[in-house]
């Protein structure tokens, strides 16, 4: 699958909160809640023309 070109990042479509705004992206959730009781996921989104990959908690992500 090295020759696959993704039209969107792998994962579930979501909105990501960053700098007080919501951005379209995709999230891959971790398999279990962390010790703080929250779900966390690796999210990829486009902001200001750049592709950004970060880890966010459920508080900064919304399903699409």
Count of alpha/pi helices = 0
* H-E string: EEEEE
- What is the C-alpha radius of gyration, as a whole number of Å? 12 Å
For the biggest sheet, the summary is: 5 strands, antiparallel
**In what order do the strands lie side by side in the largest sheet?**
4-3-2-1-5
Distance between the termini: 27 Å
- Structural class given helices, strands, pairing? mainly beta
Overall average pLDDT: 89
Outline the low-pLDDT stretches: none
Helix content: under 10%
Let me know the number of strands.
5
Beta-strand percentage?
A: over 45%
What shape does the CA trace take?
globular
What topology emerges from the helices and strands here?
Elements: E1 12-18, E2 21-29, E3 40-47, E4 50-57, E5 61-63
Protein described:
- This protein is mainly β.
- Helix content is 0%, strand content 55%.
- It is built from no helices and five strands.
- A five-stranded antiparallel β-sheet has the order 4-3-2-1-5, with no helix packed on it.
- The protein is globular, with a radius of gyration of 12 Å.
- The model has no long low-confidence stretch (mean pLDDT 89).
Keywords:
64 residues, mainly beta, five-stranded antiparallel beta sheet
Question: Quick gist of this model?
Answer:
The protein is an all-beta fold and 64 residues long.
